[in-house]
Amino acid sequence: MSEAQPTVFIIDDDASVRRGTAELIRSVGLEVQAFETTQDFLNSERPDAPGCIVLDVRLRGRSGLDFQQTLKDLGIHFPIIFISGHSDIPISVQAMKSGAIEFLTKPLREQELLDAIYSGIERDRARRQEAVLVADLQARFDTLTAREQEIMKLLVTGSVNKQIAAQTGVSDITVKVHRSHVMQKMRAKSLVDLVRMADRLGLSQTSA
To answer: 13, 27, 34, 77 - which has most CB atoms within 10 Å?
Structure first.
């Protein structure tokens, strides 16, 4: 199944900047959606595809930095490229600390903007692929019985069969049977493979 065409979202209250930026992005074959306000973006129907946001740091009514936090709170994870008419170092530092991938000043240099956009799309593509993988691992984990889940959590912390038997109150043989079921259901080729799966699911931290 082929991936949907990546989309770049532009949010800027300057119509000329929106138009010029959109034309540049379309010229390299990418889809574009342009918005005057952050609310317009939130109200829009966004495609299920990799993308990034080109966001003006100073918008009427609210700052781009505030909106960056709003997106996090809403679970919208598109990488953000901030653009600004001013070279404001404190704001740029704050934006980057909050996860922005670039902070560019107007007038925008075309190649610099395109490079940032390509980087943002690749980052979002990787995030989406990881989310699919984690969802698949979670589905496998959910097929384990409560006892198997308990034993998997102990296995990935480095506990050996005898320790697990003592902690769970079952025999060594029973632990071996459960361990075999865990490996089969999780489709783990080795204990190292199982540990990697647990890390992705966040189980190592919760059972440490």
So the answer is: 34
CATH number at residue 116: 3.40.50.2300
End-of-domain residue from the set 129, 164, 184: 129
Whether residues 193 and 171 fall in one domain: yes
When divided into structural domains, the chain yields a total of 2
- Considering the entire predicted model, what is its pTM? 0.79
* Separation of first and last alpha carbons in the chain: 39
pLDDT (tens, 9 = 90+) of the chain, 208 residues, equals 456 789 999 999 999 999 999 999 999 999 999 999 999 999 999 999 999 999 998 887 778 888 999 999 999 999 999 998 876 767 777 888 878 899 998 888 999 999 999 999 999 999 999 999 999 999 999 999 999 999 999 999 999 999 999 999 999 999 999 999 999 999 999 999 999 999 999 986 544 4
Contact 80, 51 (CB under 8 A): no
